[in-house]
Amino acid sequence: MFFSATKLTGGYGGVNIIEDCSFNVDRGEIVSILGPNGAGKSTAMRAMLGILDLKDGNVMLDGKDITNLKTQDRIKLGLSFVPQIKNIFTELTVKENLEMGAFINDDNLSSRIEEMYDLFPIIKEKKDQFAGELSGGQRQQVAIARALMTNPDVLMLDEPTAGVSPVIMTELFQHILNIKKQNIAILMVEQNARQALEVSDLGYILVTGRNAYEGKGDYLLNDKEIRKAFLGG
Amino acid sequence: MDFLNSIILLTNFIIVPGITYGSQLALGAIGVTLIYGVLRFANFAYGDLMAFGTMVVILMTWYLQSKGISFGLLPTALLALPIGILLTIAVSLFFDKTVFEYYRNKKSNPVTFIVVSLGIMFVLNAVVRIIIGPNDINFMDGHKFIMKAREFKQLTGLNEGLAIKSTQVITLVTTIITCSILFYFLNKTKTGKSMRAYSNNEDLALLSGIDPKKIVLITWVIVSILASVAGTLYGLDKSFKPFTYFNNLLPIFAATIVGGIGNPLGAFYGGFLIAFSEIGLTYAYKKFFKYIMPESLEPSTLIQFISTDYKFAISFAILIVVLIFRPNGIFKGKVI
């Protein structure tokens, strides 16, 4: 397994928000973490990034144990993260956002930027505008492109489709499917469970901080009990 | 003729001094705004940091003068300025390492930082007074006037003279150079952009691999350069007195807030806005109206909005008006 988190336990202060959570992602795979509000989805992702201190469990990237590394060092090793909110530099232009994404490694900066323009045509159109002036869906694309600029092996997305219209959501998922083709391991936390599972290879459903169900996207989609409990019938 | 005279009168007493004072405030305000943008607190020690830088420049000027070194037509202080800048950087980094870093690591709130900066203000203030004393010091040498009022009158045959001091031209030129370099740095270089990114969204900057320690270091270096340059220019143009530098904190803060705190371009314009308001509202327009009004309508009073003694009230008034009606400052847009 290319990227795996095993038996993560931790939280803020004394209370554990996640307990014994495990996730695995391989290159070229999209894996969704789903579950009701407050299940610890985002917390689990923060734990994998090292933003949250773990009490137990470990995180492995390509056979290397990165459990004790700081967030910045994990990013240098190939993790990249798109937070749910405040995920762009609003006061910088779109192009500058991309440049900042490539801060740690700006070899081939211009060709990398061109790749992003190909991947997200709207970004090319808006490249000299301040990112804060863009619409919600466009911002999300800038945010994802910024995260891709580091040339990551693992891309983590925290609710990439939160607060956008259904049309934009479909578009964003299409973009994520295109990113998958670049042989990147994609891990995303999602509220829009049904649509997320349609594009995912694997889904994990968390309930109160624990792994409740896991399985291939269509398996979870077709399971009656899961559908009733989490996907709205 | 009267019309020309009135224009020259205003140029001499409002426009030229306004541009000079505005440049000095602008440099100061950009420094305060950068500290706010990157380090996220209002630095009350800034006026005294300017005083410290100027003090070093003065001491160095005296040393150079004692060795018989001068800068020809230009003030010797310009030769001494690099040393002033270096020592100001050193003192800023010293206080950052010994004091601010501790509170930064503790993630103290901005109010704590303000109180801490007040403490450093007192320390710097005392250091400057112990070393150079509280008195007025004039350290301007070299050629004093580019254009004297009498020469201008003879040259043009007008009643009104236009005097241009060399310090005024030096101030303007230095400000243009400093600000051009600074804005080029912030907008075009990778490090400058990363500074703006850090100021805009700290968490995302960290996720992008931007090193906060480096950003903090560069910010102190830039701020110290601006403080010592602004302080030296102000001292050359007027005179050096530690208390005046402390007092200048008010118009500088006003300029910063008017321009939208954290926004360097706003701080630049804010400096000029405050300077022109201060000078424009304390000037007595009687003579001006004498030139442009028919004799029957000539004013009998000074036509001065407010006495020069109250010039700080103007900064305060602008500050309050802006805070009430546009708390984000007049100039929106980029926040560093």
Total domain modules of chain B: 1
Provide the structure class of chain B. Answer: mainly alpha
Strand arrangement, major sheet of chain A:
6-7-8-3-9-10
CATH class of one domain in chain A: Alpha Beta
Instruction: State the separation between the terminal residues of chain A, measured CA to CA.
Output: 33 Å
Q: Would you tell me the structural class of the helices and strands of chain A?
A: alpha/beta
What is the CATH superfamily label of one domain in chain A? Answer: P-loop containing nucleotide triphosphate hydrolases
Q: What is the number of E strands of chain B?
A: 2
Order of helices and strands of chain B: HHHHEHEHHHHHHHHH
pLDDT < 50 stretches of chain B = none
Could you characterize what this model shows?
The complex is a heterodimer of chains A (233) and B (336). Chain A is 37% helix and 25% strand. By secondary structure, chain A is an alpha/beta fold. Chain A has a domain at 1-72 and 185-233: P-loop containing nucleotide triphosphate hydrolases (Rossmann fold), CATH 3.40.50. Chain A contains ten helices and ten strands. In chain A, strand 4 and strand 5 form a beta hairpin. Chain B has a single domain, classed as ABC transporter involved in vitamin B12 uptake, BtuC (Orthogonal Bundle). Helices cover 72% and strands 1% of the residues of chain B. Chain B is built from 14 helices and two strands. Chain B has a two-stranded antiparallel sheet. Chain B is globular and about 70 Å long.
